């Protein structure tokens, strides 16, 4: 079974009448409401709100410009507002969200289009010609009131563009990296409702049943929009909208079938045909863009510029399914791992529009990582460490209970079978550095000592090198295997570890340099504690006050592992759990 997670949308959704707006505001405890919306609908909403209405803002703007938000916030402050009611399309909803971001005021949204943003914790804002989005629960509305009657006068062209915008939410949910069975169901039903209702609304704008299906489809699609990560379609639309001030819904409507075709979706032609039948713009040129505007932009935007329908590509979903089906005979766990891996890799390649050159470069990185790897230089572990994968696996595998000492990554410099060493020994063997007396206690989760536990210890020298990196060192040094005594204690001498750079002369170093990251690890000592009947603990102790604690390049530092090494002493109690814990 493929793992997934799903969090239900907490927004209260009501399909009913605007006449209940006052009751819904009362449910939220609102007594001094700011009403956002154009007069055509806002006048009626104001009448329903009655004495709850404290102020109005009649001028929301497309793409939520920050300067408009600033004006609205002044109105909020001047009238001691305790909540926001927005009636209209995405512009009104966006402004309500922006106000909530700054004030935490509750929101009640009355949509008059099919935008769907009323269901989400996503806010898009525009500043200096650039649109950015952020996702935070602070902007998710508390309640939504749908009244199909408010959509009956919506012009067909706007209805069609807004409906295709809603359809885009459902479509992108079908190939989102975090899609799950629930969003699959929501997206499928949203697509069915919208694809069926859009032609009916275009043919008869007064068709109440068709309008109701549109609203239900927009609601379900908006729920998808909040539950999963939107992909290339929304990224492109937000980019173009912010840069060129293009109308939001129309941009979505134009680009949707092109992105679907680019993604290899089997129903892309159905959406092309649907869009062609609707009274909407069918190219970016109709929205005012030119060839010069798209210089350096993706090829699919050039196709959309002139409304040129691309040739249908081979189905990438079919290819992914073919690969996954080839694992049918594998053991269940192997099949699960490979299926998820292939679906994730294929999805990554599709979402990022991976080029042949980029693929070849990535293969080259892996090839060079293999060539540079030896018994003493584990480049693949370094790659896993610096991408945080090792820490993820560490948490999933080892950090199962708060009653034990936190685990940490193994790192690339562990060597099997370090030399058995008596207690009290100096594992530095005379190497220069600040002397450190180490006094360790190992207990179980009931604080009872654990005798005869095998404790492997390894660390770097004062210059940041491990023994396996030093060709002139004869035999293991700063590396040993101890056993706890009858009281669960372990004592030995060493030197204070130093911060050090991981090996940066290979592919991992190139990656860090390319993204502007340093290669340094915070100073630490490694421990591996094992005994039959107990879960093995792999961890590290970090020097309090040491460098790079907040930017350790392998993301290995945990607060519970930062220890005072003052006065050349290290004292620490490790708590380990039984193997069944």
The CATH homologous superfamily of the largest domain corresponds to Aromatic compound dioxygenase
| CATH class designation of the largest domain | Mainly Beta
Low-pLDDT stretches are none
Give me the Rg, rounded.
30 Å
Strand portion? 15-25%
Name of the CATH architecture of the largest domain = Sandwich
Please state the average pLDDT score: 90
Helix proportion of residues, in percent?
Answer: 25-40%
Note the overall shape. Answer: elongated
Q: Care to count the β-strands?
A: 18
Secondary-structure class:
alpha/beta
Spatially, the strands of the biggest sheet line up as 1-8-5-4-2-3
Number of domains: 4
Largest sheet: 6 strands, parallel
CATH-derived topology of the largest domain: Protocatechuate 3,4-Dioxygenase, subunit A
- Number of helical segments? 17
Alpha-carbon distance between the termini?
A: 24 Å
Task: Report on the architecture of this protein.
There is one protein chain. With 581 residues, the protein is of the alpha/beta class. The protein has four domains: 12-151, Rossmann fold (3-Layer(aba) Sandwich), CATH 3.40.50.1970; 156-306, Dehydroquinate synthase-like, alpha domain (Up-down Bundle), CATH 1.20.1090; 316-351, no CATH class; 389-575, Aromatic compound dioxygenase (Protocatechuate 3,4-Dioxygenase, subunit A). It has 17 helices and 18 strands. The chain has a six-stranded parallel sheet with strand order 1-8-5-4-2-3, with helices on both faces. Strands 11-10-15-16-17 form a five-stranded mixed sheet, with no helix packed on it. Helix 12 packs antiparallel against helix 13 (332-351). The longest helix is centred in the first third of the chain and has 23 residues, at 181-203. The protein is elongated, with a radius of gyration of 30 Å. InterPro entries: ADH_Fe/GldA (IPR001670), ADH_Fe_C (IPR056798), Catechol_dOase_N (IPR007535), Intradiol_dOase_C (IPR000627), Intradiol_dOase_core (IPR015889), Intradiol_RC_Dioxygenase (IPR050770), MAR (IPR034786). Keywords: Dioxygenase, Iron, Metal-binding, Oxidoreductase. Belongs to the intradiol ring-cleavage dioxygenase family.
